[in-house]
Specification:
- The chain is of the alpha/beta class and about 280 residues long.
- It has one domain (about 10-280): Ribokinase (UDP-N-acetylmuramoyl-L-alanine:D-glutamate ligase), CATH 3.40.1190.20.
- The chain contains 11 helices and 9 strands.
- It has helices at about 15-30, 40-50, 65, 85-100, 115-125, 135-145, 160-170, 205-220, 225-245, 250-265, 265-275; strands at about 30-35, 55, 75, 105, 130-135, 175-180, 185, 190-195, 275-280.
- A 9-stranded mixed sheet has the order 2-1-3-4-5-6-7-8-9, with helices on both faces.
- The longest helix is centred in the last third of the chain and has 20 residues, at about 225-245.
- Its EC number is 2.7.1.50.
- This is Hydroxyethylthiazole kinase.
């Protein structure tokens, strides 16, 4: 099943597109290989499972030649990066490129150290399909700069990173998504904003990592429309957060209800709640 394409600049078809993509994930159960950090593994795996995808936390370089070709998409997250893991990340990305599989990069805290910045630049050279980060990460990666950061937290609003995101997209060939109060998505020319979500999601560690895994799942079922898949995944995850917040008392209960809400999303929820618009 390939969801029907829509014009990138038109907001009217986004809701049906998002539902078609979520339905495709549920019916196809794409296998998503995640080379990710220790903090995010649990929530990321449960996010993928609740959406209908199949997660695999395979990071040993010994297994990559056998496993990566069978994955429908690869997700690389550098949150707890170490010299031991970087060769496996690069080998998996190279193999994904060679076999025509989409892969997604989350350059966590890319500007925090020279080692981390160099590693992410090397990964960007391996042609990720999508790069998703917060505003500070996208700005740092676009400018290839090292400087003070707040770890995984952003010191910039997503809207402040639009030009950096467009520049990074043009330079890398990737769709670039900037998470924030409004999630910004660009292919280097067109820009849309996904307005779903609640502020409390920022108080749960690994929600950014997890939505990037969901992007990988959406791109896996429609790799020729990565722009639409990226925006739709961000919106759907935000909707789950909105619905979960109605039942939550704080971050811990929101985490539980977020997963439950993503699992239970139906067509009416998606069609009535998706809020993706052209960005100026």
């Amino acid at each position: 099943m390939e969801p029907e394409s829509i014009e990138k600049s038109e907001p009217t078809g986004w809701a049906s597109k998002a539902w078609a993509l979520l339905s495709a994930v549920r019916s196809q159960s794409p296998l998503i290989q995640c080379i990710t950090n220790f903090v995010s593994m649990d929530l990321m795996a449960n996010t993928l499972l609740s959406a209908g995808a199949s997660p695999a936390m395979i990071h040993s370089i010994v297994e990559i030649p056998d496993f990566t070709p069978h994955a429908n998409a690869l997700y690389i997250n550098v949150g707890t990066l170490s010299p031991d893991w970087l060769p496996a990340m690069k080998a998996a990305a190279e193999l994904a490129c060679r076999t025509g599989k989409p892969w997604v990069l989350d350059p966590v805290a890319v500007g925090a150290s020279g080692f981390r910045l160099r590693a992410c630049l090397e990964l960007v050279e391996l042609k990720p399909t999508v790069i998703r980060g917060n505003a500070s990460e996208v700005i740092a990666l676009s400018k290839a700069s090292v400087g003070p950061t707040k770890g995984v937290d952003s010191s910039h609003e997503s809207t402040h990173a639009v030009d950096a995101a467009k520049s990074l997209s043009k330079a890398s060939g990737a769709i670039v998504a900037v998470s924030g109060a409004v999630d910004i998505i660009t292919d280097g020319e067109l820009v849309v904003g996904a307005h779903n979500g609640v502020a409390m999601m920022q108080r749960i560690t690994a929600t950014g990592c997890s939505v990037t895994a969901l992007i990988a799942a959406f791109v896996a079922v429609d790799p020729s429309h990565a722009f639409e898949a990226t925006a739709s995944a961000l919106s759907v995850f935000g909707i789950a957060g909105e619905m979960g917040m109605k039942m939550a008392n704080g971050p811990a209960s929101l985490r539980m209800h977020l997963i439950d809400s993503l699992h239970g999303l139906d067509e009416a929820d998606v069609l009535s709640r998706v809020n993706i618009t052209g960005y100026r």
